[in-house]
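Sample 3 of the quickstart, ligand glycyl-adenosine-5'-phosphate:
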Amino acid sequence: MSEEKKTSAVDLKEIANLCKRRGFVFQDSEIYGGIGSVWDYGPLGVELKKNLKELWWKRMVYDRSDIEGLDAAILMNPNVWKASGHVGSFADLMVDCKECKKRFRVDKIEGKVCPECKGALTEPRSFNLMFKTQVGSVEGQAIDVYLRPETAQGIFVNFANVLVSSRKKPPFGVAQIGKSFRNEITTGNFTFRCREFEQMELEFFVKPGDDEKWYEYWVNERFNWWISLGIRKENLRLREHAKDELAHYAKRCHDIEFMFPMGWSELEGIANRTDYDLKKHSEISGADLSFFDEATKERYMPYVIEPSGGVDRGVLAVLVDGYRSEQVKDKERVYLALDYRLAPIKVAVLPLLKNRPEIVEMAHKLRDDIRGSYRVVYDDTAAIGRLYRRQDEIGTPFCVTVDVDSLTDGKVTVRNRDTMQQERVEASRVKEMLAPKLCM
Ligand code: GAP
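Result:
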């Protein structure tokens, strides 16, 4: 292809429009006017999200021998959150505008008046971010519980269970992917800051004194993982937290930041949580969570290195990074240059003429032959140019077209999303030809 290519800058609105139009992300309960900062993943979004989580799980659990998986519940004994410090200090300092009644985070506004209407502001007040609900059906006996604001605590309270049942000893880790909930005040920016979101968290338990070494290891490992997904290096950077920015449990923390359309923002945090959590849970629950090393006869409270990434922010980052717009023969072509492993649909089978039964039959057969290991779709609802553009826009790596010649020579056209180059291939060889390219 010799067409000249010009790339445009990405706008968050364009991404949100594409997500809705093509079925990646919808506003939650939209027909009722929605609910702020809660999103639903559509047919393509659910595939993309699943692929991202599977790649994380593979790297963290399947490719190593020192990490076990866990799926702890969202509801926990409320004492967990007292011990972890979330009841006391998981709060933002907020001010309300006395005129327009809007609420703002103190650290997100400049000056002493309302950023929207210039009205006077109240004194700052602390606002806890945890959602409260009740457990129990007997009136007056129900207890207040919280929707977890991080998955991490489910790992800490199961530390001894995993240690004993999997016969591990530090250094070792426990990985978990799951929903977390925060009553965020500063919202907007599409799915960047949600009230219901998913985290991919690892708590890696090490001997005190080895923590700095493992901290450096995980900062590098996690940065490299995002690069391995095909995100361009210039869109990623590491930023260390200043002392006054550190969470109450952290000795050090690095953010992996991505160049989102609204600027550099956090994609994942890697923290040295010291022995804060295991110590607190030991103190408050009365269970001894220290580790006894039989070999050295030493007892110690393990330190924890925690890489904590956001699934929703990861999905948004790969969409923003992959979004490409270029001029092809004076027409705009939009395509998503997603890593093939992340692409929601791997192959689209397209008949050139939908009113020729032999072509349709051959295309159906081809679709049935190649599906099984990955998602394959058949589409005949528009002319071929339109069908290609549609698949480009959702990041489908390969389109396979059946045409009139296919009926006599048994060959089909395989088109690559990124280069738009086309190759004639025996229909019976398409599956084996695509498998290594799709890492299947
Ligand atoms: N256990 C540590 C912890 O939760 P965090 O920095 O508050 O640390 C970790 O969150 C990651 O979770 C963030 O880097 C981000 O990707 C994701 N995250 C946090 N709050 C979020 C929100 N409101 N919406 C979407 N993702 C969020």
